[in-house]
Amino acid sequence: MKPYILLTPGPLTTSDTVKRVMMADWCTWDEDYNLHIVEEIRHNLVALATKKPELYTAILLQGSGTYCVEAVLGSAIAPQNRLLILSNGAYGDRMGTIAEYHKLNYDIIEFDEISQVSEITLEEHLLKNPDITHVAVVHCETTTGVLNPLRKISRVVRKHGRKFIVDAMSSFGGVPMDVEELGIDFMISSANKCIQGVPGFGFIIARKSELLRCKGISPSLSLDIYAQWETMEKGHGKWRFTSPTHVVRAFKQAMQELVDEGGVEARNKRYVENHRILVEGMRSLGFETLLPDDIQSPIITSFLYPKKDFDFKSFYTQLKEKGFVIYPGKISQADTFRIGNIGDVYPKDFDRLIDAIRQTKY
Fold first, then answer.
1. Which DSSP helix (H) or strand (E) runs through 137?
2. Which stretches within 83-224 are classed as H helix?
3. Where are the alpha helices (DSSP H) in the chain?
4. Cα 299 to chain center, whole Å?
5. Contact 86, 110 (CB under 8 A)
6. Model-level pTM?
7. Residue pLDDT, tens place only, 97-138
8. Which terminus of the chain is more exposed, N or C, with fewer CB under 10 A?
9. Quick one: residue 346, left, alpha or beta (phi over 0 = left, psi -120 to 50 = alpha)?
10. CA pair distance 134, 163, nearest whole angstrom
């Protein structure tokens, strides 16, 4: 069932058992689906996100993770609000694009792509701009693989009493965090990342008190997170519009497999080990990482081209023929490619990858 191993930040390699449960059809009006799949997912997501689940709720939304980011920004930022976006990559910049489309009142601070977001710069900006109401940041910026210092950022946001929006697309389920401890009001992620489901929907973990403030704000019919939540609450798992039933069932299986593995801490340990084997192996072959180790996430790793005439397409094709698919680079200041460490992949797979690269002409 696996023509090749996906070493990308999502979609990613999924287990055979996750794929197998998609072979059944489900009725979107039936309790077997709504109560015993959708509602259990919502409950389990909140329990996974915080030790204080009574303060939060989960909204599931059709589409990719970007749909959920747009839904949150469009639903949470009212005309009288002002948003500050902290960006050090393509996905932070995408928040700015969304803000432009929605004509939101916003600022964006752009940091270097190969550095972390600075909590010092954040605080300076908040002191100069007391009318800012919300701060948004990407936790793991998969443009490069940099892991932003979420705890330091959250400390500043809470100190100044701002609302906190976190794109944890590529980190939730793979990097331990507690949204309540971090003061996060809206946390956004996707089915096909660290929980190792398949693409088709994303989700928002929202502080209930802040979600209630979203009523009537969104200019969109389908991207209104308050309306989506209200329908799910009143309908006991019913979606407003046709839900991706096969994908949702696969996600429930993926969540169970996360529990069976030992939870987020155990999964993080596996991802860290995948990353270690990858980096040590690549360095032994003469490759250099883009980022210094102290700001590198265990999610995805960027490597510099080993020489000026490096042919990435040929390198990619040769690896694909050997059973591995990697990712091109996405930054402007250096020629890079990326290799993901997440999904249903294990240290032995990275040992095999290094052997495959050793046999590749580049």
1. strand 134-138
2. 90-101, 119-128, 150-159, 208-211
3. 16-20, 31-33, 39-49, 65-76, 90-101, 119-128, 150-159, 208-211, 225-234, 245-261, 263-284, 312-321, 347-358
4. 10
5. no
6. 0.97
7. 999 999 999 999 999 999 999 999 999 999 999 999 999 999
8. N
9. beta
10. 5
